[in-house]
What does this fold into?
Amino acid sequence: MEGDKSASDYIKTAINIYINRVNVIYNYRTAEQGIEMENRLKIQPFIVEHLLGKDVIVYCGGIYTFRGNVKACSDGVLTLEITENRYSHISVDSIITIKYDEES
It folds into this structure.
């Protein structure tokens, strides 16, 4: 009978459906990461325009919090002067929040 499918045909169909779903999920996540990266790249000009020379607090997650004066931000790296002539260099990609340091 032509209408009958063998077990191997059902398995092939199931595998193809699974692969298509994995590809959809992968493409969605890849697109999501692209948007996330694009948004992170927008923070660099913002820092240069609004925060250069200002005292800030930078939170990067967990226990990673930095305080200092913004000296530079280029090529994806934020440079803070922590104390006189001591600097920290922070990847812009790792910044979760950045705000004015109102205590200084």
